[in-house]
Amino acid sequence: MRSQEPQRRTPQSGLLGLAFDAKDEQKRITRGPNFLLLGGSPETHGQMQETATKINEHLDRQGKQLRDVSAQEFCEIVDQVRR
To answer: φ and ψ at 37, to 5 degrees?
Structure first.
């Protein structure tokens, strides 16, 4: 019998957006590549969607995955896409 080596998992990264400013009873949930967004007013949820989409577009242009960027680089990307 041969010994089995433990399988190595590929590190995963994702954005989690949470907002609590909704005044209505709507449950807003958006899933996308690298992100899950929950809650918020229509305006806040829309801003989270726009930001998450722009981050993914930026990463695609750079040929990178979210897991490939450092915390500092991620902050710089967020700063760029929110302008």
So the answer is: -120, 130
For residue 66, CA distances in Å to 11, 14, 22, 49, 56 come to: 10, 7, 29, 16, 8
| Pairing assessment for the beta strands 15-19 and 29-32 based on DSSP bridges | unpaired
Residue 26 in tokens: 């709507």
CB 46 within 8 A of CB 57: no
Sign, Cα dihedral of 31, 57, 13, 9: positive
What are 27-43's pLDDT values in tens digits?
999 999 899 999 999 99
Strands 15-19 and 35-39: parallel
Per-domain residue ranges of the chain? 15-81
Indicate if the pLDDT at residue 73 is higher than 90.
yes
